[in-house]
C-alpha cells in the first residue's frame, strides 16, 4: 500500500461511521469514573464483541440490526467484568447514540463539501442510530446521504453493502473514495472496487490480504489535499 498517494477524479466521499467519524470509546469515556479501572478494557471488549457478532450473524444469515448487536456486545462485556448495574448499562447504551466525533471531522467534511464532493456515510449502524449520532455531533448540514446496511440486510464487508454507495449516489465505483479507520472494512471496500483511504489512527499493522487500500493516512484532516480540494 502506498502512503499518502493522490486519489484523482473523485466525485463522492463516503465515510464509515464508527471509529472513523465517531469515537466508539467515547461512550465508556463518559462513565469511566463509575466503571473504575476496568473502563478501558471493558470498552475494548465491547467493541470487539460487537464486530464479531456482525461477522457471525452475516455468516449464519441471522441478521438483526446494529442496535441489537451493540446491546448484545455490551451485555457480554459487562458480564466479563461482573458488572450488574442496570442503570449504568442503560446509560452506556444510550451514550452510543451520542458518541463524540473526532476533532478534525467537521472542518474536513466542510472542505470536501465546498470542493463539490458528495458527502455520505456508509455504516453498519441502523438508520436511527446514525441519524442520532450525526445530529448530536452537529453534522446534519455536512452529511448529505446516510446509507445503512439495513437497506440490504447484511453487515460489512459483504459486497452488497459497498454496492449501496454506487447505487444510491449514482457514481461509478472508481469515482468514490471510501474512508474507514477499520482495516478490515478498508480491505473489504477495496476488494469490492471502491477507491479507499485507510485512516490508520492507531498505527495498526496492514491486513495480510492481497487487496490493499489506495492510501494510508493518520487522520481525516489529510484527505482534502489527497483529493486535490
Structure commentary:
- This protein is an alpha/beta fold.
- It has helices at residues 26-29, 32-35, 39-60, 66-80, 86-95, 105-114, 127-136, 159-169, 183-192, 223-226, and strands at residues 12-15, 118-123, 145-148, 176-180, 195-199, 215-217.
- The protein has ten helices and six strands, in the order E-H-H-H-H-H-H-E-H-E-H-E-H-E-E-H.
- The protein has a six-stranded parallel β-sheet with strand order 3-2-1-4-5-6, with helices on both faces.
- Helix 3 (39-60) crosses helix 4 (66-80).
- The mean pLDDT is 96.
Helix and strand arrangement:
Blueprint: E1 12-15, H1 26-29, H2 32-35, H3 39-60, H4 66-80, H5 86-95, H6 105-114, E2 118-123, H7 127-136, E3 145-148, H8 159-169, E4 176-180, H9 183-192, E5 195-199, E6 215-217, H10 223-226
Parallel strand pairs: 1-2, 1-4, 2-3, 4-5, 5-6
Helix pairs in contact: 3-4
